[in-house]
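Posted in: Structural Biology > Protein-Ligand Complexes

Title: Requesting predicted complex, flavin-adenine dinucleotide in pocket

I'd be grateful if someone could produce the C-alpha cells for the following input. Sequence and ligand are given below.
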Amino acid sequence: MKKQKAKAIIVGGSIAGISCAKALTCAGWDVVVIEKSRAPTTASPTGAGLGLDTLSQKIIQSWLPHPEPFYEVTLPLPIDQNRATDGEKKVNWVLTRDENLNFRVAHWTDLHALIYNTLPREIFLWGHQYISFCISEDKTSVKVKAKDLQTNEIIEVEGDLLVAADGARSSIRQSFLPDTKLRYSGYCAWRGVLEYSGKNLDTMMGFRKAYPDLGRCLYMELAPGTHSTLCELMYERLNWIWYINQPEPQLKGSSVTIKVNSDMISAMHQEAEKIWIPEFARVIKETKDPFINVIYDCDPLKQIGLGQSGVNRRRLLIPQLHTVEEAQTCQY
Ligand SMILES: Cc1cc2nc3c(=O)[nH]c(=O)nc-3n(C[C@H](O)[C@H](O)[C@H](O)COP(=O)(O)OP(=O)(O)OC[C@H]3O[C@@H](n4cnc5c(N)ncnc54)[C@H](O)[C@@H]3O)c2cc1C
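-- Reply #1 --
Done. Output follows.
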C-alpha cells in the first residue's frame, strides 16, 4: 500500500522554524512553514552573531550537500577569553583563557540563508500570520488558521503535527501551557554588528591592538554590574552584545526585540564611554542600527510534544522520545 506522508505545520520561519523544516523534510515529512514576515530577510534587523557548538555544527553540516558553504559563512572560534575592564582607568586585563572552545560563529542572515536555500520554496507561506489552531476530535490531525497579510484572506492548513517555532513568546505554547511563564532575567542586551569593510579602518586598527586574538576568540568583557561579548564574523563584521541590568521593558507584540530611537542610542553611547575602554566604545558608536533584546529565562519544559493521541504518537519523528530528558539522551 502506498504510504501517505505525514505533514507538519511549522509556525515561524526564523532559525528554529527552518531548522525544524529541514529536519522533518529529511525524515520524510511534508512540511508547510507559516511566517508573518513578507520574505526571507537578507538584512534582518534582529540579525546578529550566533555561536554554534559542535553538535549544532554537525547537524547543520549534515543538512548540506557540500561542506564548503558552511565554512564560507562560519568563523571558527577556538579561544574563549574572559577579561575585566576598569572604566575609570580605561584598561582591561585577562582573567581566564580557554583554548578548547570549538565554537563557530555566523551572522544570523547567513545562517538562515544557508539552511533556507536547501529547502523547496513552495513549502513557505511568507506574509501569513498564524491565528489559531484546532485539534480534530480523534486527535489525529490539526487545523491551523492563518491570515494572508496582503489580502486579509483567512486560509486553513491541515496537518498531523503543529510545530511552535514562533519565538520566545510563542502564542502556541501559551495555548498548550498557559501556566508556563517566562521570567525576566533582570537585564536586556544591546546588540550590533559593525560592518567595517573598507571603512572604520582606524577604529578597527585600534580595536585589533586591544583585542589581539580577534578573529579566533570569543571575548567576554566584565565591568562592574555589566558584561559584554565580542567576536568577529566572516566578511569583515564585528559582533558585540552588551548586557545591561534594568527594569523589564513593556513589549508590544510577540517579539523580544525592541526598536530603539536616537535618544536611546545617544544615551547608550555616552554610557559606553564611561564603562568600556575607548577602543570598544568607538566600535559601539560606529555601529549602525543597534537594537535591544529583552532576555527571558524559562524552566525547561518537562514535555516538548503535547496533545498527541496514540495514533498520532506513532507518526511522531522520534516515537518514544518526547520528553526533554529523553530527547537529550538521544543522538538526534
Ligand atoms: C543577546 C542574545 C544572544 C544570543 N546568542 C545566541 C547564540 O550565540 N547562539 C544561539 O544559538 N542562540 C543565541 N541566542 C538565541 C537565539 O537568537 C534565539 O533563541 C533564536 O534566534 C530564536 O529563534 P527562533 O526561531 O526560536 O525565534 P525567532 O527568531 O524569534 O523567530 C520567531 C519567528 O516566528 C514568527 N512569528 C511569530 N509570531 C507569528 C505568527 N503569529 N504568525 C507567523 N509567524 C510568527 C516571527 O516573525 C519570527 O520569524 C541569542 C539571543 C539573544 C537575545
